[in-house]
Amino acid sequence: MIENDLLRILTGGWVAQATSVAAKIGLPDALSAGPSNAAALSRGLGVDSRALARLLRLLTAAGLLEENGEAYTLTEMGALLRRENLGPLAALYGSDYFMASWAALEHSVTTGEQAFTHVYGTPVFDFLAGRPDRSGEFNAGMAAGTLFFRRVPDVHDFTGARSVVDVGGGTGALLAEILRRAPHTRGVLFDVPDVIATAGHALEDVADRCHLVGGDMFASVPGDGDAYLLSRILHDWDDEQCATILRNIAQAMPRGAKLLVIERVVSADALLPAAFDLHMMVMTGGRERTLPELRALLTRAGLTPASVTDLPLGLRLLTAVLETS
Ligand SMILES: C[S@@+](CC[C@H](N)C(=O)[O-])C[C@H]1O[C@@H](n2cnc3c(N)ncnc32)[C@H](O)[C@@H]1O
């Protein structure tokens, strides 16, 4: 029924928040040990058993859990909410500052301004810079994208690269995946100084081949890489800011070097990129882009767009080269 379809849309935020809370309290990890009931789970998690029973019922209806008798197990989708998988991302999406920004969506739609700055008085990356706990939660959420990180060295061969520079590389989880698969390649993790100060853990096993550099990509980026990564960066910024980042990279790249851009690509009927596009409008003032828009940004910076490859989670990998002549 069409009314039920509409109600499902209207209550979608509640289901998302319930899912986020389940991840925050560690429910998916508690269920990894095997089937359990509300009473046992509530004791282990230190939460109210009757409230948990109601949360379990909703998560079951949403397809994240299965109930057999009184015992619950994770479905295949529910298992993705464990801490080593998408759990930190689920927790981040339900965080107070994400929710408060979305609550101000009307401000964004009315004015075209980012809601986050309207609510908190400062852009989101400046807000995170002074708050190690929030920044840790944000970086853990970003690093939880390992589903697609692991695929990057499958779809692009880095073994011939002397050096890979990950611009805005966060914790270095993606760079670590690449360096593990390219044993003779060196890596440079570049991000704002606060993030670099706490990065490194993800890169422990490749630390001898990786250099951590703090800086500002709007000023300059490290030179001399023969592959540059920009993973989920361009969507944070407007076209002029993207032009500055890409110009700085093009200036740092030796001739023949490659740039790899990872983004969601907007298309006419795709819900996920459209949802993330609004999320960017609310949180950062950036946007998700169509393929022609991304290619135009690359061309404007003097780069030549090359291949496009699909990645998990609805992401795409675009390559561009700095021509040799
Ligand atoms: C959406 S996260 C993406 C992180 C990572 N590339 C990934 O795909 O998981 C954006 C990253 O850009 C970094 N960043 C923001 N402003 C920056 C700047 N001015 N210079 C360098 N990095 C910056 C943030 O600290 C954050 O790590």
TrEMBL record:
Keywords: Methyltransferase, S-adenosyl-L-methionine, Transferase. Gene3D superfamilies: 1.10.287.1350, Vaccinia Virus protein VP39, Winged helix-like DNA-binding domain superfamily/Winged helix DNA-binding domain. One of its GO terms (molecular function) is methyltransferase activity. Residues 102-303 form the O-methyltransferase C-terminal domain. InterPro entries: COMT-like, COMT_C, COMT_dimerisation, SAM-dependent_MTases_sf, WH-like_DNA-bd_sf, WH_DNA-bd_sf. Residues 9-81 form the O-methyltransferase dimerisation domain. It comes from the Bacteria. GO terms for biological process: methylation. This is Methyltransferase. It comes from Nonomuraea typhae.
